Amino acid sequence: MTCHVRVLLRARDTAFRSGDGALYRAARAELKGGIKNAKADYKKRIEDHLSSNNPRQVWQGIQNITNYRGCVVTTGNPGKEMQGSLRWLLAPSAHSLTWKK
Question: How far is Cα of residue 48 from the mean position of the Cα atoms in its chain?
């Protein structure tokens, strides 16, 4: 949703709360036109991505159409449980079993 559509939406809501029917009708018509224009702009932008000779822009267009979100890689401090299991894996000699012959 673009900022222009948000402004029109707020204007429509304000007109509704005011109780003025004519103002509300005009605000609804403006909002409808604003949404149409925003959709047309979005369509043109996506088509430009797909028709460009730049592969990066083509893939960006495809990802935008499919609502692709990349995987999230978090690098932070592992929890206490994770630290304990990592310590056990990395230092097996401290926890190794002794075999009897």
Answer: 21
Rounded to two decimals, the pTM is 0.58
Question: Mean pLDDT score of the chain, rounded to an integer?
Answer: 82
Least confident of 4-8, 29-33, 87-91: 87-91
Tokens at residue 16, please?
A: 């509704």
Distance, in Å, from the CA atom of 59 to the CA atom of 27, rounded to the nearest integer, reads: 38
Angle 35-7-12 from CA coordinates, rounded to 5°:
80
- Residue 5 token pair: 């559509």
Helix (H), strand (E), coil (C) string for the chain: CCHHHHHHHHHHHHHHHHCCHHHHHHHHHHHHHHHHHHHHHHHHHHHHHHHCCCHHHHHHHHHHHHCCCCCCCCCCCCCHHHHHHHHHHHCHHHHCCCCCC
Q: How far apart are the first and last CA of the chain?
A: 73
